[in-house]
């Protein structure tokens, strides 16, 4: 058989389960599975006909979605109608005449993405109006109404007004042009190096676009921040254009991560100095080429002078010079520059202080279409970090939070960590920049400092796996990121509940059981990996599994766990107090003082800010050593609890996803024990104190754990 034919057969077989109706997770939370009759009957009365006022592609996408969804949810498709009657759903923009007829006095919407959903009186009954200032609002409102129906909510008397918290709500894909995904654990890139034709991939891309639109994600960076200059060659830009065209009706703009050395590497110039006229001209020409193909191209994301990436400092220039040069190039096209603040140098004594030190001097000096993209914590995407002190401190520069949806440091796609709780912890954290109530959310959404340009980004966990995320339950993080980017005041519980009902079932006991597991999941991971403010204890390169002992003579100190945990006979933890690196000074009062004093420092960040003796007494009366050991054990108990709770749910959902998830929970428990034993036994070599007698004995011994090699199979 020819290779091409063989691949076609293989592909057909892969999709066979979908054809015979097996649950693969491919439809994400847009499954629209048939609602129980008790719910469907009521909804049918509210959805007898559909009135669509225009032909624009976005409005048509909304109309197509609602018809398809209702057919599936209710078993009936609303008839298309020109006139509004009892039971109509009306999709209109606020300037359409129909809206003025339905709402005396008309509608005022302040934002192009805002929408209302209203129950309005019509002759002999009532109708549902979904209206936006633009058709984008209609699309978002449509997904909102569908979500309510999937959740079994009452839709008989609606009065909903929504607008997004952030203007740009972006996924960042760390996808390489060769098809691999940096820190991706769900298969290869959905965008790059594909064998299938674009036509063949269209359905998958449409699902991607619909899923994003359903939660309000309105932009996507298609390639890795460690960017290949080649992404800007004409062939690759053609692919970018194809994606942009397909995503446009769903209000998703495309962006690219660019390599700062592109003018030299791709353009053949002898420099990439941002102040060089030829370099600037190269970027101007490139931008012109891009915008000719993609008039609404979003802009550039730049990782410069970080982890070996080129940047303006290679030419004696600054972040300000580099970012503003690109901003000037993109300005005439309305593009933005997202300039990352993820920087750290081996020479610095505390990596956690670097981004602040390096970026604060430029506050107020960036062009108005530059936004500085800051990871949520000062080091990296650890299971728990305090928020980056740049939030609140850089007041004259728009900042955006970068979260990581992919679980690089939290068990890849093998463990469940529902991250809404972690993101809420960061967004709700009070920076005290302008006194109490200066949360990270408010410091970035424009409400505190009045910045016009607002954004938020999440590093995607998406790959070619049939269920997109490698673990069915981790789809929830993609969903949750979008929901919080739209409205950071939603609760983690609400988001989890919505997602569970849409993705699995409305069975209340299933929903409450899984919701509880999800709500506890991130804290469980923190407990068995890095409790009490510990961080960076994982294998230094793959970032999977515990290796707190790693010592490599040739490696940079700040790559290695020992730099961070500093365990010794005298105790454990990184002293960032005023007696140590003084990283606490980067926070506003009263946080600074609170963190500085071990007695007032929150226990869950204690070893982030302090180096303390093993017998240090905590408020609970426990010694530090005992408390730490208990935390590790508690994490394992949580993982066991998840496994047991999940097992109880058998029969409540399809067997395919049930089994796949059951397997993941089993693996998670094994790995939780691996983490616990490795960390407890290793730290015990310094503490020389016993594991409290009432706790079970470790399953592994330290030498065995040290010789255990990371198994690449875990990756996908
Ligand atoms: C680190 C990742 C690395 C990324 C880097 C970044 O390990 O793969 O390139 O962050 O965000 O956490 O630039």
Counting H and I runs of at least 4 residues, what is the number of helices?
Answer: 23
User: How many strand segments?
Assistant: 14
Number of domains: 3
- At the first level of CATH, the class of the largest domain is Alpha Beta
CATH level-two architecture of the largest domain: Alpha-Beta Barrel
Rg, please? 26 Å
- Whole-number average pLDDT? 95
Strand order of the largest sheet: 7-8-9-10-11-12-13-14
**Ions, cofactors, ligands: which are bound?**
beta-D-glucopyranuronic acid
Distance between the ends: 28 Å
Query: Unreliable segments (pLDDT under 50, ≥5 consecutive)?
Result: 15-20, 712-716
Which overall shape is indicated by the principal axes computed on the Cα atoms?
globular
Q: Could you describe the largest sheet, including whether it forms a barrel?
A: 8 strands, parallel, barrel
Give the CATH superfamily of the largest domain: Glycosidases
InterPro entries: A-glucoronidase_C_sf, GH, Glyco_hydro_67_aGlcAse, Glyco_hydro_67_aGlcAse_N, Glyco_hydro_67_C, Glyco_hydro_67_cat, Hex-like_dom2
Organism: Xiashengella succiniciproducens
Protein name: Xylan alpha-1,2-glucuronidase
Domain Alpha glucuronidase N-terminal: 28-145
């Amino acid at each position: 058989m020819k290779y091409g034919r063989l691949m076609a057969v293989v592909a057909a077989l892969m999709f066979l389960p979908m054809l015979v109706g097996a649950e693969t997770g491919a439809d994400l939370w847009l499954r629209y599975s048939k609602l129980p009759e008790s719910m469907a009957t009521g909804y049918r009365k509210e959805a007898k006909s559909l009135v669509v006022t225009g032909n624009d592609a976005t409005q048509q996408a909304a109309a197509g979605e609602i018809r398809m969804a209702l057919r599936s949810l209710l078993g009936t498709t609303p008839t298309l109608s020109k006139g509004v009657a009892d039971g109509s759903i009306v999709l209109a923009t606020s300037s359409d005449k129909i809206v003025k007829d339905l709402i005396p006095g008309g509608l005022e919407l302040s934002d192009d993405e805002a929408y209302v959903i209203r129950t309005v009186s019509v002759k002999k009954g009532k109708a549902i109006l979904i209206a936006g200032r633009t058709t984008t609002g209609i699309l978002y409102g449509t997904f909102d109404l569908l979500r309510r129906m999937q959740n079994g909510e009452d839709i008989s008397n609606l009065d909903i007004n929504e607008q997004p918290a952030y203007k740009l709500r972006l996924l960042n894909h760390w996808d390489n042009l060769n098809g691999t995904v940096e820190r991706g654990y769900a298969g290869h890139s959905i965008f790059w190096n594909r064998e299938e034709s674009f036509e063949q991939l269209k359905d998958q891309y449409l699902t991607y676009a619909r899923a994003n639109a359903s939660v309000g994600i309105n932009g996507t960076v298609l390639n890795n921040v460690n960017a290949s200059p080649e992404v800007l060659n004409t062939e690759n830009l053609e692919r970018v254009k194809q994606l942009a065209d397909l995503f446009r009706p769903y209000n998703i703009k495309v962006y690219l991560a660019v390599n700062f050395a592109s003018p030299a590497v791709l353009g053949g110039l002898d420099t990439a100095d941002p102040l060089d006229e030829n370099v600037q001209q190269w970027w101007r020409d490139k931008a012109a080429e891009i915008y000719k193909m993609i008039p609404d191209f979003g802009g550039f994301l730049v990782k410069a002078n970080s982890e070996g990436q080129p940047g303006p400092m290679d030419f004696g220039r600054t972040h300000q010079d580099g970012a503003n040069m690109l901003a000037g190039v993109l300005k005439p096209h309305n593009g933005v520059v997202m300039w990352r603040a993820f920087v750290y140098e081996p020479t610095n004594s505390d990596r956690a202080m670097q981004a602040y030190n390096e970026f604060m001097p430029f506050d107020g000096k960036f062009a108005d279409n530059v936004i500085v993209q800051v990871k949520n914590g000062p080091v990296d995407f650890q299971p728990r970090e305090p928020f980056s002190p740049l939030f609140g401190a850089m007041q004259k520069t728009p900042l955006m939070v970068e979260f990581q949806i992919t679980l690089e440091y939290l068990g890849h796609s093998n463990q469940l960590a529902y991250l809404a709780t972690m993101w809420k912890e960061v967004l709700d954290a009070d920076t005290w920049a302008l006194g109490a109530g200066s949360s990270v959310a408010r410091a970035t959404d424009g409400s505190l400092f009045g910045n016009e340009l607002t954004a938020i980004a999440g590093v995607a966990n998406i790959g070619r796996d049939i269920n997109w995320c490698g673990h069915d339950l981790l789809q929830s993080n993609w969903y949750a990121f979008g929901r919080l980017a739209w409205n950071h005041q939603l609760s983690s519980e609400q988001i989890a509940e919505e997602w569970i009902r849409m993705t699995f079932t409305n069975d209340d006991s299933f929903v409450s059981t899984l919701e509880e597991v999800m709500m506890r999941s991130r804290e469980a991971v923190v407990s068995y990996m890095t409790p009490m403010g510990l961080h960076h204890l994982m294998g230094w390169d793959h970032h999977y599994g515990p290796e707190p002992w790693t010592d490599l003579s040739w490696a940079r100190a700040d790559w290695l766990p020992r730099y961070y945990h500093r365990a010794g006979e005298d105790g454990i933890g990184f002293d960032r107090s005023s007696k140590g690196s003084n990283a606490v000074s980067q926070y506003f009062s009263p946080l600074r003082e609170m963190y500085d004093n071990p007695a007032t420092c929150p226990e869950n960040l204690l070893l982030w800010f302090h180096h303390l003796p093993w017998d240090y007494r905590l408020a609970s009366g426990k010694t530090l050593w005992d408390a730490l050991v208990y935390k590790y054990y508690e994490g394992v108990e949580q993982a066991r609890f998840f496994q047991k709770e999940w097992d109880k749910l058998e029969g409540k959902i399809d067997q395919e996803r049930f089994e796949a998830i059951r397997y993941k929970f089993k693996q998670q428990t094994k790995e939780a024990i691996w983490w616990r034993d490795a960390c407890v036994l290793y730290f015990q070599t310094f503490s020389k104190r016993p594991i409290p007698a009432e706790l079970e004995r470790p399953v592994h011994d330290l030498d065995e754990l040290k010789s255990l090699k990371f198994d690449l199979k875990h990756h996908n």
